[in-house]
Amino acid sequence: MGVSERFACRVTGQNRTTQRRPPAATTPEDPDAGLRTWLRGWAKTHPRRGFRPAYHDARAEGWCVNHKKIQRLWREEGLRVPQRRRRKRSGTSTVPITPPADKPDAVWAVDFQFDSTTDGRPVKIASIVDEHTRECLGGLVARSITGDDLIDELDRIALTRGYPAVLRCDNGPELACDAMADWARERVGLAFIPPGEPWRNGYVESFNSRIRDECLNINIFWSLAHAKVVISDWKEDYNHRRRHSSLGYQAPAVYAAACTHR
User: Fold this and answer.
1) Cα(248)–Cα(236) distance, rounded to whole angstroms?
2) For residues 165 and 188, is the Cβ–Cβ distance under 8 A?
3) What's the whole-number mean pLDDT along residues 6-12?
4) d(Cα 14, Cα 89) in Å, to the nearest integer?
5) What whole-number distance in Å separates Cα of residue 10 and Cα of residue 19?
6) Range 201-212 average pLDDT
7) CA–CA separation, 164 vs 204, rounded Å?
8) How open is the CA angle 255-256-262, to the nearest 5 degrees?
9) CA terminus-to-terminus distance, the chain
10) Half-sphere exposure of residue 220, counting CA atoms within 13 Å on the CB side?
11) Is the pTM of this model over 0.90?
C-alpha cells in the first residue's frame, strides 16, 4: 500500500509490536529442542551436578555450544541441583539465656571469626569478651582451633580473674561438644544462643565488627606470626585506649579498674 508501519498500525488500531514478531503458526520448530532434551536427560542421570559439568559433557559429545547458552537453557528448563539442608547443631544450655551482665565476670561471651594470610591459608580468631566491662579478656589466633584449645585459654584467663558465672556462646563445633560440657560441669554455666540468632550474643558480635573494621580489613597478614602480633596489638589498644560511649567514654580496662560493684 506504500504506507509506513507506524501509519498502518495507527489506522488499524494495532500495537506496532504485534508486527515485529512472526505469528506462532509461522514460527519454525525450536532449534534447541534436541539440546533441551539432552539436558533434561543428563540432569536426570546426574542429579548432583550443575550446568558447568553439563557444558563440558555436551562439548565432549559433539554439541557446538558455549557455556552461556547451556546456562540459559538450564535455567529455562527449571533444572537445579537439590540443596541438602545443613543440620544445625544445638548445644544444651545449663543456664537460661541470661540478660546483660550487671557486674564484671558475671558473663563472658566467646565467638570466632576468620581471615587469611597472603598465601591463602586460613586464620581463625577466637575472642573472649566480658559483657559488663567490654574488655577483651583473651583469645586465640591460629590456623585451626579445637574445643580443647579454647578450654586451655579459658583456664589461663581464669588463673587471674576466676571463672565466670556464665559463658555465652553459639552452637559451633568447638563449643557444643562433650569436652566443653565436661569442662563447664559444676564450674561455669553454659548459655547457648538459639541457632541462627547471632544478635543473642550481641556484645561479642559488636566486638567482632570492630576488630573486622579497624584491624582485619586494613591489614595484610604475611604469616600467622604477623597476624598474631597485629591482632594482639589491636586488642591491647582496644582495652586500654579505645573509649566506649556505653562506659562513659572510658576505656574498658580503665572502667574495670574503677568498677566497685563486684
Assistant:
1) 19
2) yes
3) 85
4) 62
5) 12
6) 92
7) 15
8) 125
9) 98
10) 4
11) no
d(CA 191, CA 101) in angstroms, rounded, equals: 13
CA 11 – CA 19 distance, rounded (Å): 14
pLDDT at 49: 85
Q: How far apart, in whole angstroms, are the C-alpha atoms of residue 178 and residue 184?
A: 10
What lies within 8 Å, CB to CB, of 161 at 6+ separation is: 105, 137
What residue type is 223 in one-letter code?
A: S
Using N-to-C axis directions, what is the helix angle for 33-45 and 51-60, rounded to 10°?
120
Tell me the C-alpha to C-alpha distance, in Å, between residue 197 and each of 15, 170, 183, 262.
53, 9, 25, 30
Higher pLDDT, 16 or 62: 62
How large is the angle between the packed helices 67-76 and 33-45, nearest 10 degrees?
Answer: 80
Separation of alpha carbons 24 and 240, rounded Å: 76
- Give every CB contact of residue 96 below 8 A, 6+ residues apart in sequence: 191
Write out the three cell numbers for 220: 595484610
148-202 per-position pLDDT tens digit: 999 999 999 999 989 999 999 988 888 888 888 888 887 898 988 888 888 888 8
Q: Within a 13 Å sphere around the CA of 42, how many CA atoms are in the beta-carbon half? A: 24
The values of phi and psi at residue 170, to 5°, are: -95, -165
DSSP string, 69-93: HHHHHHHHTT--PPPPPPPPP----
